[in-house]
Specification:
This protein is mainly beta. It has no helices and 28 strands. The chain starts with 11 loop residues before the first strand and ends in a 10-residue tail after the last strand.
Length: 347
């Protein structure tokens, strides 16, 4: 089913990758540093450099939680990394002093961490399987605010003044962050199965909607403004499914594990359990590119701040259960140079 090659796209292979499944990838908003959270409890940081057309990734440092690391993000100035773990804590890693200190806690594993940089405040938003979103001034022991959710938090994204979180039970919670975080509304996207990831897209420099993906080889594009004029911008599309020429034969449908929008072009990437990444133009409703199939599932992805690099993690996502886990199979992080591949189609 899968290809025999671990790197069929011939992308840059990050040196000293994690020793267990990769749960999160996040590029710095200020420079080309990449952090990864993984199930070996670690958070690792690499500096990505380019000489001519050749990429290099230099391991800079790593820190360790007492349980698997499920999420990671950066402060707005790129000096600190935050990581959420199954040990129910969130740690702040100051990259200049290399200190690693606890700044937040939940009653269950912490699945999401997102930095909020508002004109009148800054804080860390954390989401957990304890069914809460919490907001932290990292200098205080108690949260500034807690929002109780109907279900466990699975993924979140923030572009001020909006935050979005997906919950178990196929719910999306949309927050207004102006003055202080408040719930704007909760909705159910038109996807019939468990949601996996969510990402906000911009229009004219402002958050305009989000993309969300599910375990059923499908994603949805949802504008925030659902007036009749924008209803044409709201749609679902199939992705990460096997190509079947004979319609009488069954189609393999894979989980879509990650969705991310390009920071410059507004096009998007999805990654899945089929071991492929795909690039899409949502406005033209067309696929721009599909990568060659890896010999393992792709668990997560991210773009760097300038949109020139696309990082993706190749490791087992447990979508086929424990009997398909191969402890001898290595985990990889790849970085692809994507200067023109995500440019929108000319209208």
């Amino acid at each position: 089913m899968f290809s025999t090659a671990h790197n069929p796209n011939k992308d840059h292979e990050v040196s000293q990758p994690p020793n267990d499944s990769i749960s999160a990838l996040s590029f710095s908003p200020a420079a080309d540093f990449l952090v990864a959270g993984s199930w070996d409890n670690c958070v690792r940081c690499w500096e990505v450099k380019q000489t001519g057309t050749t990429l290099q990734s230099e391991p800079k440092a790593e820190q360790q939680h007492a349980g698997p690391t499920l999420s990671c993000c950066w402060s707005a100035d790129g000096t600190k990394v935050f990581s959420g773990s199954c040990d129910k804590s969130v740690k702040m890693w100051d990259l200049q002093s290399n200190s690693f200190t606890q700044v937040a806690a939940h009653d269950a594993p912490v699945k999401t961490v997102n930095w909020i940089q508002a004109p009148n405040y800054q804080c860390l938003m954390t989401g957990s399987w304890d069914k809460t979103l919490k907001f932290w001034d990292t200098r205080q022991a108690q949260p500034m605010m807690t929002i109780n959710c109907e279900e466990r938090v699975y993924a979140s994204d923030v572009i001020y003044p909006v935050a979005v979180s997906i919950l178990a039970g196929r719910k999306v919670k949309i927050l207004n962050l102006e003055n202080q975080p408040t719930v704007h509304h909760t909705m159910e996207p038109p996807l019939r199965y468990q949601l996996r990831d969510i990402s906000i897209f911009k229009k004219d420099g402002k958050p305009a909607g989000f993309g969300v993906c599910s375990i059923e080889g499908r994603a949805a594009i949802e504008p925030f403004d659902n007036t009749a004029a924008n209803s044409k911008d709201k749609f679902t599309f199939k992705c990460h499914r096997s190509v079947v020429s004979d319609h009488h034969k069954p189609q393999d449908i894979y989980a879509v594990n990650g969705i991310k929008f390009h920071p410059i072009h507004g096009t998007l990437a999805t990654v899945g359990s089929d071991g492929k990444f795909s690039f899409w133009d949502k406005d033209a409703r067309t696929k721009l590119k599909t990568g060659e199939q890896l010999d393992n599932t792709i668990t997560c992805c991210d773009f760097n701040h300038s949109g020139t690099y696309f990082a993706y993690g190749s490791s087992y996502d447990w979508s086929k259960g424990h009997e398909f886990y191969n402890p001898q199979q290595k985990n990889y992080i790849f970085i692809r140079q994507v200067k023109d591949e995500l440019k929108p189609r000319k209208k």
